[in-house]
Amino acid sequence: MSGLKRRQFITSLASGAIGLGVAGKLGAGTPESPAAGQETNAPKVKKYNELGKTGLKVSDVSCGAISLFEPNVLRYAYECGVTYFDTAESYLRMKGEAYVGQGLKGVRDKVVITTKHGLNPSQKIEKAAIIKRMEDSLKRLQSDYVDIAMVHNIGDLTPLLKNEEVLGAYDQLKKDGKVRFTGFSTHNAKVTLKQALDTDFPQVVLAMYSHMEGKEIEPLVKAVRAKGIGTVAMKIFAGNQKNLKGLVGPGTSYPQAAIRWVLSNPDFDTCIPTMSSYSHVEEYVAASNRPLDRAALGLIARYQEQVHNTYCRVSCTECLSVCPNNVAVNDVLRYAMYFENYHMEKQAMDYYAELEPGRKPVGCESCAGHCESACPYGLKVRTRLLHSHDILTA
Amino acid sequence: MVRTSGRRSAAGVILILASALLASAQASLSLKEIFRKNLEASGGKAKLGQVKELSFKTGGMRNFVSAAGDLKILVGKDPVITEAVLVRGEKVQRNSLNVTSDVTGPQKTVYQTLAKLYAGLFSLAKFEGQLNLEGLKSFGPAKLYHLTPKAKSGTVGVHFYLNADDFRLKRLVFRGTTPEGDKYEVNYDFAPFEETEGLTIPLAWFASQVGTRGNMTEVTELKTNQPLAKDFFASLEVNVGKTESGPGEMKGNVLDFNSSPYGLTIVTNWTKEDIEKAGLKTGDKLAFDLDGTGAELIFYASPGELPPQNDLSKGARMLAPMPRGGEGFAVQFIAVDSSAVNAKLKTLAPISVKKISS
Predict the structure, then answer these.
(1) Is A324 on the interface with B (CB under 8 A)?
(2) Which end of chain A, N or C, is less surrounded by CB atoms within 10 Å?
């Protein structure tokens, strides 16, 4: 059979197969053409944004992979149009990157992957060790490169920018083609985004931003975005408080409303709600490119009403300067949030154990409570700190 | 070169067609056929017939299920039981610290579904004739059969998803509203089924809710056909020891204990009622005894009366309300040597306190 005849045979066979009702399967992985008998209600990402000046285009709703069990959830997210995936060396006790590698195997070149490494630039740290850690991450990710390498949880950029070993390591990784862009994640955007304006180190930043906090960093986000730095929002659900009443509205849910609120700021390129299950993917992707409306704003208002004086705006930091004992108030309350709301008990206790002893709330019981006077949101900070210490050390 | 490329293309197309035909076959399977294969994947009716009772631990919970579909869940460090949940047919009840109530709403649906699932050894055997086939759903490369109960139970829908390749349960989703009208959705993603103790079941699953992150549950201590009391699935008793309290003294039991670098916490079965009978007031000095090992404690009636944290961190022995709230009281040793007490600790061990002075 000549090549031509073979092609004709194959074409006719394919036509026959289509006639038998399997046409949809020929488009496997393309939900536009599903097989007969298959459910087809998967939502799709409707908007893609430039990630700063990286030249990368990313879905407006993206994927945080801090809590995961089934790697195929990530592949499903990709099928739903998600193209940006955020992980870290430390996630899932060093298994997070492996899950990402496994889930995105086969579509690696079609997605953008960020991973993060916790480094303390104030301590002795060697270039070779950083490079080795990145190479280990790449093995777990089953990839030759990572699109964005971030320094994890930076509160102050200055020590990092002064550390030749750290900067040298990332330069080397870029030269070797193992890292395309660099950046950092931060819970202290008021300080770090300002610093980011004066350095070329970050091409992408990951910052806390939600309807509960973030208004004060909006000018800085605008400025870094104008500089060409890609902007990614995290912790967009403002504490993941559960068991709140009345958080369902017509055609939307609270998580969708929270995503739509974040994406209504054009200075954020994408956001990374944690996608732990197929339901998470469907719920969050359905919020893509949906403008805020009255129903969504109503849900947000209800959420704010219920948690306004219990939720610590971690990036606020008004309490820090007035504390006579130098307690890391916002970090302690954030770890308590991980413990109580995220159910990451062990990890939260690990984080707390690593906190310098002098920054724990050991002197709070007898203190006059300057933090409470300084808190613009009326939180009972002192009581919450003591409670946090209890649960994080029990 | 062209010919090689052509052969590759042809092979590719044939592969695609084979996949397409397989998918077509998957999509056209009847509910009956899917059900049969699901049952076979868990060992078939023969295996089900052999298992009269199944028990396993998930975290701090001990689960017992009968072949008839009765489920009993016990909470507490063995032999302590602080809470018991019993599912028998339409009735779901909970006894928490000797207070019994009916379980209603979404939780009732969840418990009833889990009872049938466990009784069927994680197959759908106990749902025979009760399910509809909704279709074959694609989650990326994964194809899952979606089945739902014919009869709706309460305000929450139940969605089973079976792997299209091995017909085993992959996902279980409860979705609906609470009686108050709020959204309710819990996803269970099951690990691959594994051979263990003669059964083929998932040894882990991950439960998550939209808007929050998830938790992994691991199955341990799996056993079958354990000898159980005749009325095991009829009783809803808890086991929290017994307290005896009178003026200036209390006797009770250890419910749980936790030792960490910060100290030792002993959860007791003493309640506010015991404290009132003993007439204890904040600041009272108490002689604590555990099997002949003693310590002097200071009593604090409420969290607000506790000394400053920095004072406690210098060393404290006390009887105070549970650190994380609740009705109970705990003995706490903070930053002091508690090794002698620690060595004698076991659940339900008798303990006592006697007032020394105010």
Answers:
(1) no
(2) N
Same domain? B281 vs B339: yes
| Bridge partner residues of B187 (DSSP) | B173, B208
Contact B265 A394 (CB under 8 A): yes
B235 within a domain of the structure (yes/no) = no
CA distance A149 to A134: 9
d(CA A220, CA A208): 13
User: In the CATH scheme, what is the homologous superfamily, with its name and number, of domain A48-305?
Assistant: NADP-dependent oxidoreductase domain (3.20.20.100)
Residue A75 touches chain B, beta carbons under 8 Å: yes
Average pLDDT, chain A: 86
Cα B266 to Cα B332: distance, rounded to the nearest angstrom: 6
Domain containing B269 equals: 244-357
CA distance B31 to chain A (A): 13
Ranges in chain A annotated CATH 3.20.20.100? 48-305
**What is the helix (H) or strand (E) element at residue A196, kind and residue range?**
helix A189-196
Token couple for B65: 């299920």
How many C-beta atoms lie closer than 10 Å to residue A335's C-beta? 25
- From the list A346, A352, A318, the residue with the least C-alpha distance to A333 is A352
Do B73 and B215 have their domain in common?
Answer: yes
Banded model confidence at residue B22, pLDDT cuts 50, 70, 90: low
Choose among A52, A55, A167, A185: nearest CA to A118.
A185
> Within 13 A of B354's CA, how many CA atoms are on the CB side?
5
- Check whether residue B176 and residue B56 sit in a common domain: yes
Coil, strand or helix at B2? helix
CA of B44, closest CA in chain A: separation in Å?
Answer: 27
The 10s digit of each residue's pLDDT in B81-116 is 999 999 998 999 999 888 899 999 999 999 999 999
Residues B89 and B197 grouped into a single domain: yes
A76–B24 CB contact, under 8 Å: no
| Window B:262-321, CB contacts with A under 8 Å | 262, 265, 306-311, 313
- Judge whether B218 lies within some domain: yes
Among B224, B252, B273, residue at a domain's last position: B224
Tell me the CA distances in angstroms from A193 to A219, A319, A334, B119, one per residue in order: 10, 20, 20, 56
Mean per-residue pLDDT, B37-56: 91
pTM for the full predicted model? 0.81
Residue B149 burial class via C-beta count within 10 angstroms: exposed 0-12, middle 13-18, buried 19 and up? middle
B195 and B73 in a common domain: yes
- Find out whether A394 and B265 touch, Cβ atoms under 8 Å: yes
What lies within 8 Å, CB to CB, of A81 at 6+ separation is A44, A45, A46, A59, A285, A288
ipTM for the predicted complex comes to 0.76
- Say how many domains are in chain B: 2
d(CA A346, CA B342): 23
Query: What angle do helix axes A96-103 and A127-141 make, rounded to 10 degrees?
Result: 40
- CA-based angle A267:A270:A271, to the nearest 5? 115
Assigned domain for B255 exists: yes
> Does residue A246 sit at the B interface (CB-CB below 8 Å)?
yes
CATH (domain of B294): 2.40.30.90
Closest residue of chain B to A258, computed from CA coordinates: B211
Determine the residue among B132, B162, B180, B208 to mutate to test chain A binding: the one whose Cβ has the most chain A Cβ atoms within 10 Å: B208
Same domain, B76 and B206: yes
State the best of B16, B156, B209, B210 to mutate against chain A, taking most chain A CBs within 10 Å: B210
The answer to whether residues B186 and B157 touch, using CB atoms and an 8 Å cutoff, is: no
